[in-house]
Structures are given as C-alpha cells and as structure tokens.
C-alpha cells in the first residue's frame, strides 16, 4: 500500500513509500520509469517522504510508523542513509523540509504529540529541537510557511535585510491547526486555528507568489477542507473559509507551485482540483482522471504488504 | 498514554460518532460501594477536550438520580448531524428499569432530563445495545432470560425476539450484528450465547463451549464479517476470548489466551477490526488482533482491575477504562510520552503554593522538582501494528510544471484466511492544465513566431477581434509587417491618399465655382458702376474694401510710399515689416523671398504669429517641420490628425520619438479611452516597453488570458521592430521582463516548459527586480532535453544576460556545476540601470583575504558536500580559515549586508569554492559596501579578476570563483555575486597535488599542446581568452586524473579524443566527445567536458 509519492524539485524523480517498509526512487524523466533505488531501513510502514531543496544535494527524508525519521542521501550515484532520528515515541506521520533559505531543517510530526525540528549543523551533525505535546494524541501533518515576507512584491523596501520569520503549520488529532513561530531560537505556538470537528489530517501552507496574504489549507477526518487566510503582516488574524464538505475523510491537500490550484484527495479515492474564482469562491475545476493526458504512469506491481 | 482521568466509580458511555465535541457520560455503578458507603447515584457528562493538556475533564453539572446503574449506553437516536448535543442516553437500572435521558438537557443544566422510563424487566438490566442501522431500536437483557426490543419512537411496549431460552438464566450481554440489522446475539454467564433472527422472531443458533466452563462477560460482533463474534470468559479457570464463526459453530474458530485471570470486558474497535480491547482480573488491558490472536499492545495501567472498557466512537485512538479503584481513565492507543502532562502537573502543584516569591528574596522560586520516574515508564510504545486509521490510502501532490502525482490504494477486499491479495498499486503522473485557451493561444503565437507568418497571424486576430479597439491594435501591428507602413498607418487612421485627392478635387472645383460666381458678380457690379466717373468709382470701391479694415484706413496711402521708399533703398526688412504691418501678407512673403533665407524664415514666423486660423498651426508645422510642437500642443481629441501628420511628414529618425511623445500625452491624459489609444501610437513607434506599460495600465487583472493578450501583441511588435529597426533583439525592459517572466511561469505551471524557456527574458536594459521565475532555467533545459544545446548556444553567443537570468544561472550554479561552469564563459551582463552596483576597479593587488562577515553562523545548516559539489573540507566563512589555499589573495570581496555565507565545494582543486550567503545572519555594515547607497548594494556585483568592460559589464571568470549570493528581501530579489580568479592561489596548492598517473599524462600534454597551437594561430582576443580559460579549466580534468576518480569509459574516451587530436581529425574528436557526454554521468564530466568541446571546436575552426 503506497502512502506517499513525491516528485523532486525538478520533476525528474519520483519517491514513493509504502507499507512494505520500503522507500523507492524512480527516474521519471521523459515519461520513463526506472527504479533507481529501493531504500530499506524502516521497520514499519513508511508514511511520508520529502525531498530537500536540490541546493543541498539529493536528499530525501522519510518517516515511518517505526518511530524513526531517516534522511537518505545520494553520494556518487548511490543512495544511503545519512541520518536516523529516533527521538519520537510513536509513529512519525509527517516530514517537511523548511524553505531552503533557512538551511536544512526538517520538521517531523508524530503521534506522540510532539513535533521535532532537525537542523543540519554541518559535519554530519543534526541539532534537534522538540516541541512536546504540540497536539494531544498526535500530530498528523506539518507544513512550512514560504520564506517570503508577505507582500514583498508590492512593497519594495530597498536594501533592507529580509525580515524572515520561520513559521510552520501543523495539524493533529486534537482537531486543531496550529501555527508555530520561531522566536529567539525557540519555537512558540503562535496561533491555534479551530474549525475542524475531527482530526486534522493534513495542512498545506500555500507557496507565496508575493501577495500580502498568507494561505493555509487544512483537511480533516470530518470531511471538511478549510482555507485559512491571513492578511495582516503580524500574522495574527486568520479566518477560515470552508472549501467544501466531503462525504468521506479528506486525507491530503496539496497546492500547485503557483499556489492557485489545490488538489484534495479524499477517502473515497477521489482527487479533485479546486481553484478560487475572482469573487473569492472556491470551485471544483476537475476530477482528476488519473493518468489521462498524463506524462507517465507508474505501475508498481505487486507491492505486498508486510 | 493516559490522557484524562475522572475520579468516579461509574459506568461509562461515549457520545456517538456524530457528536462533536466528544463527551463521556458516567453513571454511578451499581454493586460497588466506596468507603463512604454512600448509595446516592448521579449521571454526569464530561467533555473530552484534547487541546487542554491537563488530566482533568471538563464536567457538566450532573444530575442526581435515584437508582444506580448496571449499564449505560449513548445512542445516536434522532441525532441530526452534529452541531448540537443530541442522541439519547439509555441506562439500565438495578430494579429492572430502563431510563432514557436527554444528554443535551443534562449539559444545559436542565432539571428535567428524563425522556422516558420503563419498568418492565425483572431484576437489574445488565445488557443494552443500540442497533446501528435503526438507531431507534434498543435491545435490553435482564434476569430470567428476559430480552426486550425497545423502539424509542414508541417506547411504551417492547417486543421480544422470541421465546425465552431455557433454562432461564441471566442475560449478561447483548449485541446487535454489525452487518445484518435483524440479527441479535445474547449471552449469559453460563457461557451460552444465542443468536436471534428478529424477522423470524426466534433463536437461530446457539453457541456454547463443550466444557461449559465459559462464564460470559463480554460479547461482540465482528465489525466487518457478519458471521463472526467473540465471547469473553470471566472464569479464572478459563480466562479466554473465543472467536466464533457461525458458519462452523461447533467449536470456536480461535481462542485468545492472553489473560491469566478472567476477562471482565471486551470492546471491538469499529475503526479497525484488527483491534480488540480486553481487560481482566489480571489487571491488564490488552489490545489484540482477534483475527490472529496476537497481542498488539498492553496498556500501562495501575494494579487495579478494570470492569468496563470502551472505544471512543469518534476518536479512534481514544479509549476509556473504568477501574475498581474508583477511576475512569482515558487513554490513547498511539503511545507517546507523558512528560508534557507530568510537567503540567508539577507546574500546577508548585504554582498552587504561590511560588511567586514566598520568602521575599526578590526571585521567584524554581518549579517544584518531583522525583523523576524512570524513563521506561514515561515512554509508552504504540501499537505493534499501525492502526487502519493512520494508513493514508490516497494522495495527490503537485510538483514542478503543473504535474500532479496521485496514488490510490483500492480498498482491499480482505477475507480472513485468504492471503493478502496481490494488489497493484499505481502512482499516476498527470499534467494539470487549467488554462486550455491560454495554452492554445500561446501555441498559436509560438507557431506564428516559428513560421514567421506574422501577417496572417495578425489578420486572423483582426478577424477574430471582438472589440473595435482590439481590431485596430492588430491592424496597426499588422501594418508593421507590410511595405510602406506609414501610408498604411495613415489609411488606418482614416487618411486615404486617393480619398483625399478626390476630396481636394471636389473642393477645388467648388472653390473655383464660388470664386467664379463672386468674381462675375463683382465684375458685374464693377462694370455697372464704372459708368460713372471711373476714378471716383474706383476710389469708392477701394474705400468699401477699406471699411473692412477701418484702423488702417488712414495709413493706407502712406504705407505704399514708405514701402516704396524702403524697397528703393534696398531695405527689405523694413519693407517686409511694413507689409506685415499693413497686413499685406503676400507682399511680405514675396519680398522676404527676395530678401534671403533668414528674412524668409523670420517672416514666416511673424506670419504664423499673426494668422490665427485653425489650419495655420498645421501649415506652420509643415513649413517649419516642427512636429514636436504640434504633437506637444495639439488638442488630444485630434490625436488621429496629429498622428497622421507625423506619419506623413516626420523624418524617419524622429518618427518614433514623435509617436512616443504623442503616446505619452495620450497616456497621461485622464481619459481612459485616450489612454488605450496611446497603445496605437506606441505600436507606430515600435516602442515595446511603453506598449507594455500602457497596456498594463489600461487592462487590469492578472488573469492568464489578459496576459496572453498582452504577450501576443508584444511578441508580434517585437518581431516587427526587429524587422524594421536595427535594435538588439534581446533587449527587454524591466516591465516587459516582469511580464515575460510571469508568462513563462504560467506556461511552466501548465507544463509547457520548453515554451516557458523561450519566453524567459534574456536581457533587461534596466536593472530591476523582475519577479522570481520559479524554476532555475537550466533545469528547464534539462527537462526539455536540450540542456547542452541550450546552454552551450547561449554561452557561445555570449549573449547579454538579464539579471533575472543571471539569478537563475547563479541559482542553478547551486545545483549543477556544469551550468555554473558555462556561466563563467565570459558572459557579459547587460546592466546599467540605477540599481546596478557599479563594480569597483578590480582589485589586483594581492590583499589579504577578508571575509567581512559580521555574523558568522556556526549553526549554518548545510550539508557540506552535496554530491555534485564534493569537497574535502567545507569552509564556513566566519570561522578561522586554516588553509592558505582557502584565502583569496586576488581580491577581497564584500559580503552582502546580511547573511552568513556558505562555501560549497566544487569538483576541482580545493581552492575552488563557491560561497553562498544566505539571509539568515544579522545585519551589519560592511567595509566594502558601507560607502555605497543602500540601493546600490542590491544589484549585481561581479568582481572580475580581469578588467571589466565599461564598468557596466562584468566578466565572470573561471578557474575558481566565489559567488556570494545575497537577497535583500527574498531569495530571488537580488544577489551579489563576486567572481574572481584564484590564479595566485594555485601555486601553493600545486605542491600538494598528486602527480597524474603516467599513462594518462598524455592527455594533459596533448590538450595543452593543442591549446597552445590554437593560441598561436588565433587572432582575435576573444578566442584567445576563451582558450586561456579552457587551459585553466582543464585543471579540473587533471585533478580528476590525479585522484583517479574518473570511470574507465570516460578515460578511454578521452584517450580516443587524444588519438583523434594527434591525427588532427577534430570532428571525430567532437563525435567521441558527444558520445562520452551522452553516456556518462553528468556530474562526473560536467566540469571539464564542455571546455574540451570548446577547445576541439576552436581547433577545428582554426585548423591547427
């Protein structure tokens, strides 16, 4: 059973992870599909994979029910484990790399309720910061805010140091979406967004296209997908807008790179695409016909569960 | 992990799954007494608030009730989907009564909470269950084999499922089937279970263990499989859970023997059929897989027995257990650490002592330290197998270029006993295209550009145009591609030459006619009058004429004399003045012609000053050729006329400027209609940039199609301009660059990556911050499968690169040494706007290397060695630089105002390093930049080791270079790039180099010799410089040879090249080269193969 599939930065490679404890990397250039690597190291189903920005090399993070986070790295054409983080007490459900501007930082959300932040400090060393009890009975998703000061395209202050504030959003079994902010090297809960009535399954912070609005999409066990927006620079006033109430669990939300389309994947095995119209209403623009007009389709035959 | 705790000795019931928030109802348990021997009973509701980290649960005022309970359930009857508290609490009492409570009222604190109450059973009601298909049906069981089916809509009279079983015995458990709604099972302590079919109204099967030692304490149906159920035994001699399948009801399918003493309660998870909870008198709470018998989890509990256990229907990871020590605990099955919780308790404890400053020491007390429990206790491992509810079955993620990666796992129809089906799991990659029209039009445009069918394209657009304005814009654009464009422009403005001629003819004849008429009448009159004294008549005629100019009547006669005098003296000027004074314009002009050019022009001026008719201005302009004036001052409503005049008369060299001027005026006018017309002027002028600005202003909205509208026009106009005017085809203004980038982004996002690449602005003539292009350009090339071609072509063209492309390139430098390397091929960057950082004179004197980094960031989070940038020891500026090779004697370069920089190794000599500055550091003033205005610090800074051209062009040099990237607001916004040579540093490092293996030495000698030969025969400095660079950069290759890191195929290929060089068949060498590049690992060869190609190409060209 495949649990995640992610393309790398350039869309040339595809990483998948599965309940058979494997992480696989395929070369999908020019519509082909060549298995490059079958990474073994997890002792439980692997939930998510995440590619680091290519400026750091070819790096992939994976997280698993075995409570481990493994960071894999390609060296001279072969993939190897470069770091293993075992600081969680329960299933690690989500991994997400910070915007590359911050360096190599990985956020990991776990069913033990904690969120870990792994920062690479050089020489193979990783520094760990842990937010304990971020979400009671578990964090299901983490997603970083883009490294853009909102509204930078509009205001043009020249020569100033960018006023980056590291932020990420998380969603958990306490039905909450939380926004975390780094202050003086410490992570603090900045906002608690309440709207869902059941587990928040996924959160996705929209990529910034330079507009002054920050946007987060969240989806839940309750079938609802909310779009949260925040217009003010301080990031304090978030308002939810219900995108849609589905009849089944919504497992995953993903923004297109230009942030104007949201892909929503639900428990009914349907993927729908949503787009905001000029009057601010969200409309479903299509059901994805899988593989239709597609560049390539990958068939992973007979992945038996273990 | 324990989440919550309530100190109650009570039966418990979770709110139904639909209910949000989650509540837990507790009703005082019968048959248990606490130390006070109190027999009072209460029904309470608690809220499960997981955002509250404490162990307490928020309690809603309970109600005191007369009877204590044997069983409490919460049914979803009459429950509308979830906002308000609803459903029904059903309690089984000691005296055979069944009471229905309204939980909403309990929560609201209402006094009257009972909906209904029936006293039908004999003996305590120990078993209750709600039918999940018809939630109004409740089954109850009590003593003497009594089973009733209650309809909550008609509570008065219960039904029975059939005849009472014999012998009469207590009914301890009752359960509705989870798949078939009319099937009910009951069980008694004797160990017998009966399955009832309510349609037949009779028991259909009886299940019992042969040894009769089962003492049924629990009964549960399989959530998914209709024929399976489990029975739990309370008997210490047989502490088992039996799994029965009614298809083989003679003996249990499976027996779970995980408890050492009797099982008191069981609960089967509805969310995952592989999770069955059981608690027993061995004080254990186990979670096992009833389908395999494996114990998946043991809940950490105290030593007390639990007599009731329940899964939370809404939150699948949560369960509650009621223990005999008078406590209900809520647990999470997902494990986790309780540290956070305990810390909270400690805080509570210490703050309850008022620890602010009890001793007046001026300092608050530290928090109370409780003795730490051992780690093994605080960390609770989760289930051995992942529960079903966290296994994500489906997902879709967007990736580069509008591709959507989706995967799904078709719901497995798993049957027990059947091995896992061989499922096929698919991952799909789809192209998401949301802007179909946009793409279609973009393709048309590209097709037009490719085929150069501009005229037909424009014509097509004219035909398709909806609005007049649109049509005229396209008509104007089309004209650009036609001969005699100005005439055509005039026609478009409504000035057809033939038409005009016709009109003039008509007018002329008219005038003639009128003139003739007047003349005849005048002459008639004249002749008539002439009968009288001729002189007198003439004088009177004259005076009549004079009357029209009464002022001048008096001087009339004198003027003639004066003019005569002036003429006689040859004083033309005075004569002309006099004529003008006398309004004898024709005379004046004629005299002025005689008086010479100077006088003529002066006279013309005066004439025009005096004459004020409407047409004079035009005549003025025609005569003086001063179109600027007319364009500047004409009434804008008559812009067509002005434009027509310009089109007719203006000289080619000033034509564009005049059109611009007119456009400017139209644009600055408030009238929006005129503003749009300005576009036409810009089209005439061929001013792409202004057109973009004007269009953008006129057409608001950033929609893809409006962008497409603009880009279509721009592309066509640019092509036209390229045809007609000799301008740099790659020159792109800032605004256009921005639009083009946007356009390219859109195309890329829709998957048209190759097209996006062609639209990326190559050069801007104003330095500006174009918006980020999301993807590095080089990788677009990779994707389009033409990396080598694209980039090499660019390199060879030595095209001017825009800062935007520079950014992309430098960014891509981060990823690909190959591209970076190409970038170093003597690119000149077209810059020159105000924001440009004028490079200082290259610092040639060896200065001690300084990395003026005010904020070294020791925790800089980079992997030191990306695969493509391996380097023995990564250098972090700001740290002491231990090795002399890492110092840079050639130049000291300023770091940007922010950021620690990161040096990234590149293949090659250790001295070669790339430093990235990222905006994570703190601000600081830098010696090298502080004397510059802040605005200038944001530009590009390339500090060349060689002379930079005109102070505006930068040379990026190779060998070693350091790029310091800075971003003043965001990553993309700007960067500072310093590039310099490490030549001086090389000698020190050469000492440490290993020798090239002897068998490969020939490679070096041959290549070097070839370069030398080329250098000797090359004539232009450009080529020489290229070759020089190549020579240096082949060091990469030599280093690889020294390290012996190259693969044998590459080595042998290189030797083949050498052979071909020896025979001077360079073409063959190039072929081998291509072969190597295409078959080898990109990162392995990227540092030197392109150089080799340059050398071979040059050698071939020079024929050395």
From TrEMBL, chain A:
<feature type="repeat" description="WD">
    <location>
        <begin position="193"/>
        <end position="228"/>
    </location>
</feature>
<keyword id="KW-0509">mRNA transport</keyword>
<keyword id="KW-0653">Protein transport</keyword>
<dbReference type="GO" id="GO:0030127">
    <property type="term" value="C:COPII vesicle coat"/>
</dbReference>
<keyword id="KW-0539">Nucleus</keyword>
<dbReference type="GO" id="GO:0006606">
    <property type="term" value="P:protein import into nucleus"/>
</dbReference>
<dbReference type="GO" id="GO:0051028">
    <property type="term" value="P:mRNA transport"/>
</dbReference>
<comment type="function">
    <text>As a component of the GATOR2 complex, functions as an activator of the amino acid-sensing branch of the mTORC1 signaling pathway. The GATOR2 complex indirectly activates mTORC1 through the inhibition of the GATOR1 subcomplex. GATOR2 probably acts as an E3 ubiquitin-protein ligase toward GATOR1. In the presence of abundant amino acids, the GATOR2 complex mediates ubiquitination of the NPRL2 core component of the GATOR1 complex, leading to GATOR1 inactivation. In the absence of amino acids, GATOR2 is inhibited, activating the GATOR1 complex.</text>
</comment>
<dbReference type="GO" id="GO:0031080">
    <property type="term" value="C:nuclear pore outer ring"/>
</dbReference>
<keyword id="KW-0906">Nuclear pore complex</keyword>
<keyword id="KW-0458">Lysosome</keyword>
<keyword id="KW-0813">Transport</keyword>
<dbReference type="GO" id="GO:0090114">
    <property type="term" value="P:COPII-coated vesicle budding"/>
</dbReference>
<feature type="repeat" description="WD">
    <location>
        <begin position="39"/>
        <end position="82"/>
    </location>
</feature>
<dbReference type="InterPro" id="IPR036322">
    <property type="entry name" value="WD40_repeat_dom_sf"/>
</dbReference>
<keyword id="KW-0677">Repeat</keyword>
<dbReference type="GO" id="GO:0032008">
    <property type="term" value="P:positive regulation of TOR signaling"/>
</dbReference>
<dbReference type="InterPro" id="IPR015943">
    <property type="entry name" value="WD40/YVTN_repeat-like_dom_sf"/>
</dbReference>
<dbReference type="GO" id="GO:0005198">
    <property type="term" value="F:structural molecule activity"/>
</dbReference>
<comment type="function">
    <text>Functions as a component of the nuclear pore complex (NPC) and the COPII coat. At the endoplasmic reticulum, SEC13 is involved in the biogenesis of COPII-coated vesicles. Required for the exit of adipsin (CFD/ADN), an adipocyte-secreted protein from the endoplasmic reticulum.</text>
</comment>
<comment type="similarity">
    <text>Belongs to the WD repeat SEC13 family.</text>
</comment>
<dbReference type="Pfam" id="PF00400">
    <property type="entry name" value="WD40"/>
</dbReference>
Automatic annotation (TrEMBL), chain B:
<dbReference type="GO" id="GO:0007029">
    <property type="term" value="P:endoplasmic reticulum organization"/>
</dbReference>
<dbReference type="InterPro" id="IPR001680">
    <property type="entry name" value="WD40_rpt"/>
</dbReference>
<feature type="region of interest" description="Disordered">
    <location>
        <begin position="925"/>
        <end position="945"/>
    </location>
</feature>
<protein>
    <recommendedName>
        <fullName>Protein transport protein Sec31A</fullName>
    </recommendedName>
</protein>
<keyword id="KW-0653">Protein transport</keyword>
<feature type="compositionally biased region" description="Polar residues">
    <location>
        <begin position="925"/>
        <end position="938"/>
    </location>
</feature>
<feature type="domain" description="Sec16 Sec23-binding">
    <location>
        <begin position="563"/>
        <end position="757"/>
    </location>
</feature>
<keyword id="KW-0256">Endoplasmic reticulum</keyword>
<keyword id="KW-0931">ER-Golgi transport</keyword>
<dbReference type="GO" id="GO:0005198">
    <property type="term" value="F:structural molecule activity"/>
</dbReference>
<feature type="compositionally biased region" description="Pro residues">
    <location>
        <begin position="874"/>
        <end position="883"/>
    </location>
</feature>
<dbReference type="Pfam" id="PF00400">
    <property type="entry name" value="WD40"/>
</dbReference>
<dbReference type="InterPro" id="IPR036322">
    <property type="entry name" value="WD40_repeat_dom_sf"/>
</dbReference>
<keyword id="KW-0963">Cytoplasm</keyword>
<dbReference type="GO" id="GO:0070971">
    <property type="term" value="C:endoplasmic reticulum exit site"/>
</dbReference>
<keyword id="KW-0813">Transport</keyword>
<feature type="repeat" description="WD">
    <location>
        <begin position="118"/>
        <end position="160"/>
    </location>
</feature>
<dbReference type="InterPro" id="IPR024298">
    <property type="entry name" value="Sec16_Sec23-bd"/>
</dbReference>
<comment type="function">
    <text>Component of the coat protein complex II (COPII) which promotes the formation of transport vesicles from the endoplasmic reticulum (ER). The coat has two main functions, the physical deformation of the endoplasmic reticulum membrane into vesicles and the selection of cargo molecules.</text>
</comment>
<dbReference type="InterPro" id="IPR015943">
    <property type="entry name" value="WD40/YVTN_repeat-like_dom_sf"/>
</dbReference>
<dbReference type="GO" id="GO:0030127">
    <property type="term" value="C:COPII vesicle coat"/>
</dbReference>
<dbReference type="GO" id="GO:0005789">
    <property type="term" value="C:endoplasmic reticulum membrane"/>
</dbReference>
